[in-house]
């Protein structure tokens, strides 16, 4: 199909587009934050929806909470191989990573590293994390506007990641860059060409290969590189597979929590009654953290490939078809969540959201993410009456990373 | 009605009435026993209702299914007696069942 004949969702209201033509993957819907009405319509009228043609080829959209759970739980019928986003892998630059594998290899590799972010380890890290949050918050200007994304969200998540890798602290901004490059192709403006993207990722590999060699010579320690270098299931990985798994850990620990840290500020500003609740009762913070993660849904989707014909919601998905589970839609499904379009920081069953995924690929760092956001808000509440949003948020131009590049705020002291 | 006992990591015991046919996870939630998150609501998909069954009860409780087994594997602190409470349906023969709760859910 030529460019001219593709119906652009952004030029229409969701209710006016013929159902068969709906393509929720179109970038402009995400740049301009216009995807919501399209997802509501799909949930109501065509919850398991086939899009026959898109920038990413034909794909199914699964948009209801319960249907997403069904796909998540059944890895035998819905494979994560060869990729977990709507974008197909580059044929000449494959990046194998355990999130995009099925059992048993997935289980072996994941088990090698999952201890690093297990709750027992987090207890040890808590005071370090709190100290860093305090330092970052104390360095912020009060009463003048700045970009919360750069100064707080990126800074804190990058510091955390450097710690998990035991990565040279002074070079940590490289991690942020590699995370951005890994998820953003030339169309996002992050890099100029696919060649440049691959070049930068190979620099990432070279840098980490040095760290690997250094850690392999030493005894096993608690950082992720050491765990990979010493783990039975991972010590003989190919360089591409090492790079793939690094990117998984970098993006998983960076692009996600970063955007929940920003999304929470925005949501509280848009819901002043909830902000007042928080001021009156800081014990609501753990529940608020879950609600922020649901509300933001920092990764908007995950993708699977059907391994056999499968009937879901009355539709027959054929073996080989691409299936996209839109977490961002399932998290707003009133069939599963009470008043899903309201941000309620003390809601019942706040933990029951899709943002971490379910089943064997469920987010490995979920407890770390929750802890970081919890500490951030505890420390914000000690210092500031309000983190006031003073500009329009600028969104990441992606249907996968659901987040922000800019959110201007002004801090008000107590 | 059978009685079951949940023992928290700190030793606190919760002995509660358990309705036959309900899952152990649901019994814990209904009785406000702390330490069971049940993020997926009982679908064997999150492993946040992890418990350890006391040794003398293992035979009566039985073994986890393959699906439960693969979810339990996500937990580096899995023990031979580990189960997911959502996958255990309470029966009359479970009267007196005692299970330990882990320090953390994953």
Question: What does this 3D model show about the protein?
Answer:
The complex is a heterodimer of chains A (414) and B (106). In chain A, strand 6 and strand 7 form a beta hairpin. Chain A has helices at residues 27-31, 35-45, 65-73, 105-113, 119-138, 148-165, 173-183, 194-217, 224-230, 239-270, 272-280, 285-296, 327-330, 366-383; strands at residues 48-51, 59-62, 78-79, 146-147, 301-306, 310-312, 315-317, 322-326, 384-389, 394-395, 404-406, 408-413. The longest helix of chain A has 32 residues, at 239-270. Chain A has a single domain (3-413), classed as Cytochrome p450 (Orthogonal Bundle), CATH 1.10.630. Chain A is of the alpha+beta class. Chain A is globular. Chain B has one domain (3-100): Beta-grasp domain (Ubiquitin-like (UB roll), Roll). Chain B has helices spanning 24-30, 58-61, 66-72, and strands spanning 3-7, 13-17, 50-53, 82-84, 98-100. Chain B is globular, with a radius of gyration of 12 Å. The model of chain B has no long low-confidence stretch (mean pLDDT 95). Helix content of chain B is 17%, strand content 19%. A five-stranded mixed sheet of chain B has the order 2-1-5-3-4.
Could you give the topology of this structure?
The complex is a heterodimer of chains A (414) and B (106).
Chain A: H1 27-31, H2 35-45, E1 48-51, E2 59-62, H3 65-73, E3 78-79, H4 105-113, H5 119-138, E4 146-147, H6 148-165, H7 173-183, H8 194-217, H9 224-230, H10 239-270, H11 272-280, H12 285-296, E5 301-306, E6 310-312, E7 315-317, E8 322-326, H13 327-330, H14 366-383, E9 384-389, E10 394-395, E11 404-406, E12 408-413
Parallel strand pairs in A: 2-8
Antiparallel strand pairs in A: 1-2, 3-5, 4-12, 5-8, 6-7, 9-12, 10-11
Chain B: E1 3-7, E2 13-17, H1 24-30, E3 50-53, H2 58-61, H3 66-72, E4 82-84, E5 98-100
